[in-house]
Request: fold
Amino acid sequence: MSDWVFVCPTSQLLPGEKAVAWAGDTPIVVVNLDGAFYALEDRCTHDEFELSSGDVDLAEGSITCVLHGARFSLRDGEALCAPAYEPVAKFPVKVEDGLVWTRDDRT
Ligand code: FES
Reply:
């Protein structure tokens, strides 16, 4: 089981904002969605571009890949539109003492 990796203090991750952390070789984007934190692999399933460069849609709860426009649900990683069809991996997030942590729970 991989270790938790530090992302940032909650004070640096306000609603709609993103932060990126690395769990080994896995880039993870963590997003504050109206006070709840969600973590996805920072790698679009269409052509592996970094999702963290894209915009967050707070109303839909999604993030858009800037390369070709695929959107993914922040809550579960599901692909919401073409050209992506496969979900991105979703990872756990924990908040302790005002600090945000995540980990790649596949390893
Ligand atoms: S790489 Fe993300 S939509 Fe193509």
